[in-house]
Design goal:
30 helices; alpha/beta; globular; 20 strands; 6-stranded parallel beta sheet
């Protein structure tokens, strides 16, 4: 017998011991949702539900393994028979049994990311498509996936997301159709097909639907706020009726992934789809001190459409979160460094501190400052701003502009052009006499004459940017060269190459602004070279064990927590993101993102608001404090100015 009251608070106990029927558990940040799911599984087994009749759906295999291992420790080895895993894992398991009903072999092949992109590339070549304005295989894969997961016509997706490219929408649709045909011919399913065909299996075949509806007496779903349309339909179909035994656990306050298909409406409409659903709110927070939770509650209160919840602390009091009003990004970085040193002196390890930001380019100044003072930093995505391909591309342009003998920079830059690979680059370098003097118009023209027409057009755009750049000597600014490079050539290259092209463009422009505010381009390039080679801890290899400050976007920080958290660039246009809010002025998801950021902190929270931002051309413009900060009552924050704290 399990003494549930010993391990669970009253709200968790209510959810765990609830009877049959639909159940919505609104689990606010840090309130023990995993504990609740684990004990729910144990309780169902304890009351006689066969483990194989329980389906536990999660968003990561790691989460499923953790829950099932904990369930075994509570309920015994029989918990291993629970059907647990990601949506993809469960669909694959069902399809392996019934694939012939959809025209596939039992032993169909699952195409991973690289396989999918190769097949798409093969389709493009077979159809004799491509060219300067045609999207690359990575972008096409993203478009196809977006359309499937959101159940949107591909034509609409292409028209919205590729408005920078003058490509033919019908050609993109032809590639998708050929990709579908090729997968069927090769008995291949990609990751999206697993969801799509899993749903088809139980909607198109009544006997299979009834088989699994009968088998799964209870369905449990973790992180329900992150489900997309296909996943929600899959669950609803398996449940079968509005009075079915479904328990979903999630937090509408933490729905922050709409950009990758998560549909906020799934959790909000759950009571309408299941009118008899019991709703249990988990509000007792075991993570943060009360002062941080007060700020979190205040930050989310302004969102109109949500299930109202109030985080309540189970811990003793701490210190009020600090609001730092600083001069600019440079002073912001200096404040963080001083605070890091202070926390180190008090006994905290670097790994106990995290800096959160809305977008990667917000961290450029901070990464530079941490490198200067030799504080190790680990980026949660595993790669720092200066190690990303687009940063390296732009830095290669600047390196070659200032050093005509930089062969590595030449190779990287020239291979961006259509039809130019390493072998061609080597031939060009030899014909140029192992030197590429970008200051000399005649030598740039010589290079243009050696290129094929498709590549020459791209080089001429770069040539124009170089010409404008050197015309301003000795008052050249890196941002002018970068701006001309982006507008004339690189934005189109990014758009057809990467799904997140707009974010990469932001990174590049911010990089230009930072270089303009450095002593010189050469000094900046040297500093970056030293930073990328010696000071950056690789988050992928060292994991959470490395003693390094964590740098992370808020999206990547969800599910993590640290004793000390810094939120930087809490100003309008950056957090909230001007791009995300858009013309509709809907800031709800951005506010949820700020809430997620605040609830990552356990002991101390610092919010930093710079007054000025350096932009390209060496100019500065005033920043307006983020609406998410102004919405927090002054009494909840300890405000400090500059370096006085």
């Amino acid at each position: 017998m399990i003494d549930y009251e010993r391990f669970l608070n009253p709200e968790q106990l209510e959810a765990v011991t609830a009877g049959d029927g639909p159940l919505l558990v609104l689990a606010a940040a840090g309130t023990g949702k995993t504990q609740t799911l684990v004990y729910r599984v144990a309780h169902l087994i304890g009351r006689g539900v066969p483990p194989a009749a329980i389906l536990l759906l999660t968003f990561t295999n790691r989460a499923a393994r953790e829950m099932l291992e904990r369930a075994r420790s509570v309920a015994g080895d029989s918990a291993a028979e629970v059907w647990g895993g990601t949506f993809h894992h469960v669909c694959n398991r069902m399809l392996r049994r019934h694939a012939p009903r959809l025209g596939y072999r039992h032993d169909f092949i699952i195409a991973d990311r690289d396989d999918s992109r190769k097949l798409i590339d093969d389709c493009v070549k077979e159809l004799k498509l491509g060219g300067k304005e045609f999207p690359g295989k990575d972008v096409l894969a993203g478009l196809f996936s977006h359309a499937v997961n959101r159940d949107e016509p591909l034509e609409d997706v292409v028209g919205t997301r590729l408005d920078h490219l003058a490509c033919n929408i019908e050609d993109v649709c032809c590639v998708q159709q050929r990709y579908i045909e090729l997968k069927e011919k090769l008995a291949v399913m990609d990751f999206d097909d697993l969801l799509l065909n899993g749903l088809r299996l139980i909607t198109e075949h009544e006997d299979i639907r009834r088989l699994y509806q009968k088998q799964f007496q209870h369905i449990l779903v973790d992180e329900y706020q992150d489900t997309n349309l296909l996943q929600a339909q899959f669950v609803d179909t398996l449940v079968g009726s509005e009075d079915g035994n479904i328990m979903v656990v999630g937090d509408d306050f933490q729905c922050i992934y709409s950009w990758r298909g998560a549909d906020f409406r799934n959790i909000m409409s759950f009571p309408a789809r299941y009118p008899n659903a019991r709703i249990v709110r988990l509000e007792r927070n075991y993570r943060s001190v009360p002062e941080i939770l007060e700020v979190a509650n205040a930050s989310i209160a302004q969102n109109p459409e949500q299930f109202q919840k109030t985080l309540r602390a189970t811990r003793g009091g701490g210190s009020r979160p600090m609001l730092h009003i600083v001069k600019d990004g440079r002073e912001q970085a200096e404040v963080i460094v001083r605070l890091i040193r202070r926390y180190q002196d008090s006994g905290l390890a670097l790994r106990d501190m995290a800096v959160l930001y809305r977008a990667h380019f917000h961290s450029i100044e901070l990464q530079m400052e941490l490198g200067r003072v030799n504080i190790p930093a680990a980026v949660t995505s595993g790669i720092g701003v200066f190690e990303q391909a687009h940063s390296k591309d732009v830095l290669a342009l600047l390196r070659l502009a200032h050093d005509p003998q930089d062969r590595l920079a030449f190779d990287r830059l020239i291979c961006l052009l259509p039809g130019v690979g390493p072998r061609t680059a080597a031939t060009l370098w030899h014909k140029l006499g192992s030197v590429c003097d970008c200051r000399n118009p005649a030598r740039r023209a010589q290079l243009a004459g050696l290129l094929r027409p498709a590549a020459r057009e791209g080089w001429e755009a770069i040539d124009s940017a170089l010409d404008d750049y050197f015309a301003d000597e000795p008052h050249t600014r890196a941002s002018k060269l970068i701006g001309g490079f982006v507008k004339g050539f690189y934005e189109g290259y990014l758009t057809k190459t990467y799904e997140n092209a707009s974010e990469r463009v932001d990174d590049v422009y911010e990089l230009g602004a930072q270089i303009d505010n450095s002593p010189s381009v050469a000094a900046f390039l040297q500093e970056v070279a030293l930073l990328t080679n010696t000071d950056q801890v690789d988050g992928r290899e060292t994991g959470r064990q490395a003693d390094a400050v964590r740098l992370s976007t808020v999206h990547q920080a969800k599910g993590l927590e640290w004793p000390v958290v810094f939120i930087i660039w809490a100003v309008e246009g950056m957090f909230p993101s001007a791009r995300a809010v858009g013309e509709l002025a809907d800031d709800s998801e951005e506010r949820r993102l700020f809430y997620v950021a605040t609830t990552r902190a356990r002991e101390a929270l610092h919010i930093l608001v710079p007054g000025w931002r350096h932009v390209k051309g060496g100019q500065i413009y005033p920043c307006v404090q983020s609406r998410f900060v102004t919405e927090i009552p002054n009494r909840l924050l300890d405000t400090r100015y500059g370096l006085k704290f």
